[in-house]
Amino acid sequence: MAAVEKIIENRIDDKTTDSKALKWVGTRAPRPDGVDKVTGRAKFGADTHLPNMLIGKVLRSPHAHARILSIDPSAALALPGVKAVVTRDDFPDQPAGAVQPAGEMIINYRDMTRNIMAREKALYEGHAVAAVAAVSDRVAGQALTLIKVDYEVLPHVIDVDEAMGADAPLIQEDLITEGMDPAPEKPSNIAKRVEFGHGDIETGFSQAQVVIEREFKTRPVHQGYIEPHACLASFSEDGQADLWCSTQGHYVARGHCATLLGMDVSKLRVTSSEIGGGFGGKTVVYLEPVALALSRKACQPVKMVMTRDEVFRASGPACGTSMQVRIGATREGKITAGDATLKFQAGAFAGSPVPAAAMCAFAPYDLEHVRSVGYDVLVNRPKVAAYRAPGAPLGEYAVESVIDELAKALELDPIEFRLLNAVREGVDSSYGPKFGPIGCIQTLEAARDHDHYQTPLGSGQGRGVATGYWFNIGGQTSATLNLSEDGSVALVVGTPDIGGSRASLAMMTAETLGIELDKVRPLVGDTSALGYNMLTGGSRVTFAGGIAVVGAAEDLIRQLCERAALTWDLPLDDVEWIEGEARPANGRAGSEAPMSMAEIAKDMAKSGGPIVGRHSTNAQGAGPSFGTHVVDVDVDRETGRVSVTRYTVVQDAGKAIHPGYVEGQYQGGAVQGIGWALNEEYIYDEKGKIENAGFLDYRVPVCSDVPMIDTVIVEVPNPEHPYGVRGVGETPIVPPLAAISNAVENALGIRFTELPMSPPRVLAAIEQAG
Amino acid sequence: MRYEVPETVDAAVALLAAANGSARILAGGTDLLVQLRAGLVEPDVVVDIKKISQTRQVTAQDGGFRVGAAVTGAELDEHPDLKKNWPGVVEAAELIGSTQVQGRATMGGNLCNASPAADSVPALIAAAATCQIAGPDGERTVPVESICTGPGKTILGTGEFVVSLILPARPPHSGDAYLRFIPRTEMDIAVVGVGVSLTLDGAGQCIAARVGLGAVAATALLVTEAADALVGTAVDEGAVEKMQQAVRAACRPIDDKRGTIAYRTQVSGVLAGRACRIALERAGEH
User: Which of A134, A135, A129 is nearest to A117 (CA)?
Assistant: First the structure.
């Protein structure tokens, strides 16, 4: 493949690099949502209001595990101002096996209805048990105290290894592990076993001269979006409903809500708000079906907004894990075998991203003998939600830690060791498919050659490197271009804009149409505006949305050419679209003055009426993205505090449509990874209750905790996208955990196998090492 | 709930006394408003003391300073002489919250909120600061270390409030410092906090010392054994080590989500040593 590979350093002035032919793609155009966000005009989830609106609140389980014997809402309903109470009785049960893929996770509606409102049992502290709608926040809060719930408290289990034990309390009494042959006879908390790989690992290990095996443990973390879950639901007496909410996918939310409420999907219209962060955590529903059920009962609009405490206790998180990794290599540095066992906490319902973690764990390496086994394990914690490359950071943390140790044992530079084993185009991936064009080697080489990697460390500092991988996805996507009478266009898409997609989609539209960017107004339409759209996730929107908007632009161009051909009385084949105008072509070139989009639009009534460009697709061919991170740390040997002093992200974007946004994704992923590696963790008491349900004691990094994150955009184009786009949003969070752990090892000579590397844990290890 | 804004100390005392214990005092409000919103407190009356001129002024007094209880962290930082004389105290007050919070947060509130982890308190204890308290029976003056009796609890009786904090005069060759440990770099609560104040003679011998310790017991502590380890020495490494041992011996922390007993005890000594070295350097400069 004649791929144009190039590297963009993060300078602000590189408006275009080699893209002479491209006017908008590759530039740092102003963001269309910027002014509204800095002026406060932008409407987020909690910002929609309606007349006669009620406030909804949720009563949550105080127990980590308890059978719900009875719920008596009568006293709450008797309180003046209370308009409705809903419990498990207000949601129809869902059939077993009602499973459907949604984004990067699998949805099981029998579980989902139990997660949004507990049925037989409360399965974690904070699990919704009932909800009220009342005339004010105060009355709703008072009503919650009047709902009488009888619980039979049951033994609980929080830790994944304990949950796999033979005598662990069963979270779902009838759960038989899937993926085991023969199937177990007895129920357990292990929902599923998965295995990926090829070759024969024992043959591989027999060829190794050095084998390193380690066990790792990580704590669950929260996605940490700043905007809490919020929605407004309005059900009318005739069964039609509207929902406004902060979500990563309003079509997906519509489907979930309609299923949970037992209504026709098209009777529900969902409008997505601006979103204050999601990172995967807003791909599922929590409040939305509850607000709809309350509104249906009260026949009034119901607004619900989670408190931060509720966000921590009842939404997200990402998994905690227990992992074992064994890797063998020859003296020369060729990896002969890799074996990983990954046990992931799913929370109270099956569906941790352990399959994805098992698939990604060894993805950067070209291995003849490789196996990764995953276990999806139930514990009494909130059901995990997707979090940016779900699962991948964890598996790669374990693998990349052992890779680092192997490099050290073999006395090889960690990047050179990776380069000796890195995957390239045409290689069978560790999880199956053959790789197409990929940029794994290119990111490693760019990291090796970067000033950061070449600069000597300060005294006492350590440097770490890690490589990460994420698949990226395509999926169902629709876009419409409505031509206005002055020749400007409204671009309507159905994917909420989390990472700058309005900018990148408008840029690809303007580029394809050959018009000025400010003639394109990008908007996120509601669920009635377009055909189906999968959610914003899987780093898919600039890829799949790009295919949709380019298709819609091409559809529009075809119609514009038809109108010009009609006007000029020429065959369509003799009209071409160049630089935003229709021109006579072939033998008729120059026979008529070109017609601009504005001119065609002005007379569209005469030439056949309104002009609308459309494209709907189930986009295939997403380009996977590799990234390599380099990080320097300083460790305070007396307090155990780790400071990140320098950080560089190198990643393959395929093509950066808007380099500024791409860099923002790289930096954001690194910052979230720094928090995950150093301080973020849920702390539980002995009763299974969360002790740090707030940003004070759940420590995401603040600005002063992180250095300026350098970025290098590598571009190995994805041939399946009109402009070469791969997804970029998720890969940046994959390498940091291992990169930082490797840097700490380099500084202290101590290998940490537990996250987070919080100051007490680091100091204890330093003292133990003497 | 009533909101009252008295303009005199007497009026404030009358309101507080009449409320019979169900009143809360509002200075910067950076703790109180959070507690109100979380439903942790439901007072009948909130008495805002910011319109009482004495609470909002920093004035020179007996060679030292009288600092109004409602003077904000940002104002302390901007005062021309305060930071020169008591850099450790001002730095401690400046650690409370964010830049925005600094425009509201006060040392009076930080003290009377009675959190064991309050940042300004160990520094005030090291500084030998006292509180001027107004009440129905008149005024009294109490050392800072005697104000808090436990988490959220103070010696203040019904009708009483802290009007001012008094920082004493600074002899020559004096210096103070405050350090805290937090897992982040800002926007956090001390896992351990240590304030140290030193005075040297002309020959560099330590003639007076005080050490305040926060977040390692139910209240901030004055550790006299730690100070005793320094007095009469040149604050050499041996003396500092003894001081650190005394600090660790004084710790009575709990295991909680913010730190373990072992961690807090160990790090209290580390920070005491570091704060002591900064105070020593500052004493050498003056």
Answer: A129
Residue A702 is nearest to which of B185, B191, B262, comparing CB atoms?
Answer: B185
- Which residues on chain A are in Cβ contact (under 8 Å) with B265? none
Q: Any idea what DSSP says for residue A429?
A: P
Torsions phi, psi for A58 (to 5 deg): -110, 135
Sequence ranges of the domains in chain A? 54-154+229-305, 321-472+623-769, 474-619
Q: Closest approach of chain B CAs to the CA of A640, in angstroms? A: 9
Strands, E assignment, chain B: 2-4, 23-26, 45-48, 58-61, 64-68, 130-135, 138-143, 148-150, 153-154, 161-167, 174-181, 192-200, 206-214, 221-222
What are A264-297's pLDDT values in tens digits? 999 999 999 999 999 999 999 999 999 999 999 9
Chain A interface includes B53 (CB < 8 A) = no
Domain with residues A54-154+229-305, CATH architecture: Alpha-Beta Complex (3.90)
3 state DSSP class of A373: strand
CATH number of B2-167: 3.30.465.10
H-only helix segments in A147-185: 160-163
CATH fold group of domain A474-619: Aldehyde Oxidoreductase; domain 4 (3.30.365)
Q: Do A638 and B188 touch (CB under 8 A)?
A: no
- Do B263 and A638 make contact, defined as CB atoms within 8 angstroms? no
| Predicted local confidence at residue A7, as pLDDT | 53
CA distance A688 to chain B (A): 14
If you measure CA to CA, which chain B residue comes closest to A307?
Answer: B38
User: Which residue of chain A is at minimal alpha-carbon distance from B267?
Assistant: A639
Q: How far apart are CA B26 and CA A392, in angstroms?
A: 49
- Confirm whether B2-167 and B174-285 share one CATH topology: no
Nearest to A523 by CA among A477, A492, A544: A492
Rg (CA), chain A: 27
Selected for mutation to probe chain B from A307, A697, A758, A766 (highest B CB count within 10 Å) is A697
- For residue B181, the chain A residues in CB contact (below 8 A) are 639, 641, 759
Instruction: Give mean pLDDT, residues B121-127.
Output: 98
| End-to-end CA gap in chain B | 50
Q: Does ipTM surpass 0.90 in this model?
A: yes
Q: Is B190 on the interface with A (CB under 8 A)?
A: no
Name the amino acid, one letter, at A218: T
What gap in Å lies between CA A229 and CA A58, rounded to an integer? 13
Check for a shared fold between A321-472+623-769 and A474-619.
yes
Chain A residues near any Cβ of chain B (below 8 Å): 638-641, 678-679, 683, 691-692, 696-697, 699, 701-702, 704-705, 758-760, 763-764, 767
- Let me know how long chain B is: 286
Tell me if chain A has a CB within 8 Å of the CB of B188.
Answer: yes
Whether B189 and A763 lie within 8 Å, measured CB to CB:
no
From residue A659, alpha-carbon distances to A19, A25, A37, A499 in Å are 13, 9, 20, 12
pLDDT digits (tens, 9 = 90+) for A701-741: 999 999 999 999 999 999 999 999 999 999 999 999 999 99
Chain B: give the shortest CA distance to residue A751, in Å: 20
Structure confidence by residue, pLDDT tens digits, A125-166:
999 999 999 999 999 999 999 999 999 999 999 999 999 999
Average pLDDT, chain A: 95
| Fold observed for domain A321-472+623-769 | Aldehyde Oxidoreductase; domain 4 (3.30.365)
Q: What's the CA gap between A53 and A72, in Å, rounded?
A: 25
CB contact under 8 A, A702 and B187: yes
CATH fold for the domain made of B174-285: Enolase-like; domain 1 (3.30.390)
What are the sequence ranges of the domains in chain B?
2-167, 174-285
How many C-beta atoms lie closer than 10 Å to residue B128's C-beta?
18
How is residue A221 annotated by DSSP? B
